[in-house]
Each structure stands twice: as structure tokens, then as C-alpha cells.
Amino acid sequence: MGETVAVWSEAVKRIKRRDFTLKTVIVSTFERVDENEVFDCLMNCPNQITYVSFRLADLTDDAVAGFFQHLATNSTMKYLDLSNNQLTESAYLALAAALRTNTSLRELFLYGNYAMDRTRIDTAFLETLRFSPVRPAETKWWLYEIFTDDYNRIENSTLALGPVSMLEQLREADRTRKH
């Protein structure tokens, strides 16, 4: 089992020297960090860190955009807590897009961010599950509220829609190619 580092400056040192025993990084709400350094460092250690918490870290959409692109190809991240930050609908949509290819993430905490159009967000996550349905059985997504598992709700809606048609698959392949 890997080690946990709750002090970001220590985590940076260990990541830079390729210390593969480090698996969990928790950025304290009291620790002022450079968000770009944080995510650059995490992106430079692919498939090492499995648990990341930035709860109450004042993160913005700009801060997480590049990290979500990295998350799309990451195969070991299992836990991501971005709750109670300053994320908007734009960040939620970017994360839904990243999860179309990332199937390793089991627990996602996004509640406590800015108010947004939940219908649009739900649609994006529903499309993610329709085109990438293989997820660990214990997957949980808390998108809006701490005690509401949105993954099961969205998954049930996805199942009610039935399988993806050939035309939908072709449109999705075309959309993916354009991005």
C-alpha cells in the first residue's frame, strides 16, 4: 500500500524524484499552493497517484482544465475530490468528456461548487456512460450533494435508453475525431 502526503511541498519533492510509494495526495485548505504547479506535477507522474483531494482549495475551471485532459488517459486514479471549490458548469462538462475514456475513477466528489444547469450536466454524464459503460461496480459520483450518489441515478437513466445505435456510434466517432 502506498503512502499519503498531506503537505503539498513534500509531495512535490517525492513526485519529482519518482517516488512510486506515494499514492495519495491531499492538499490542505490552509496550504497555499500554485495550482499550475500542482496539476503539472500530477500530470508528470502518470499512473502513480491513485487518490487526490483538493477539497476547499479554491480551484477554478482554468486550474483544472489541463488536469482533466490528463485524467482522460490516466489508468490508476481511483479517487478525486474537487468538492467545495469554484468550479462551474464548464469544468463539469470537461470532466464528463474526460471520463469517456477514463474508466478507472471510482469515486468522484464535485458537490459544493457553483450553481449550474443540472440538466445539461446530467446529459453530459449520461452520454459519458452511454459511450463508455464499463465502470467498476463500486463507482460513485457525488456531483451536486454530499449524500446523493448521482452515478446510480445517471446509470439507471442510461439503461432506460437502451443500447447505443450504430448511427450514434458513428456520430460519436466523428465528434471524437474533430476534437
Walkthrough of the structure:
With 179 residues, the protein is of the alpha/beta class. The chain has a single domain (3-178), classed as Leucine-rich repeat, LRR (right-handed beta-alpha superhelix). It is 45% helix and 11% strand. The protein contains seven helices and six strands. The chain has helices at residues 8-16, 35-43, 61-73, 89-98, 118-131, 150-161, 166-178, and strands spanning 3-5, 22-26, 51-53, 79-81, 107-109, 140-142. It has a six-stranded parallel beta sheet with strand order 1-2-3-4-5-6. Strand 5 (107-109), helix 5 (118-131) and strand 6 (140-142) form a beta-alpha-beta unit. Helix 2 (35-43) runs parallel beside helix 3 (61-73) and helix 4 packs parallel to helix 5. It is globular. The model has no long low-confidence stretch (mean pLDDT 85).
Mean pLDDT: 85
Query: Could you tell me the number of beta strands?
Result: 6
CATH topology: Leucine-rich repeat, LRR (right-handed beta-alpha superhelix)
CATH superfamily: Ribonuclease Inhibitor
Which geometry do the CA atoms define?
Answer: globular
CATH structural class: Alpha Beta
Structural class call reads alpha/beta
Detail the poorly predicted runs.
Answer: none
Q: Indicate the percent of residues in helices.
A: 40-55%
Order of strands in the sheet with the most strands?
A: 1-2-3-4-5-6
CATH architectural designation: Alpha-Beta Horseshoe
Largest sheet: 6 strands, parallel
CA gyration radius, whole angstroms: 16 Å
Strand content: 5-15%
- Domain unit count: 1
String of helices and strands: EHEHEHEHEHEHH
With helices defined by DSSP (H or I, 4 residues minimum), what is the helix count? 7
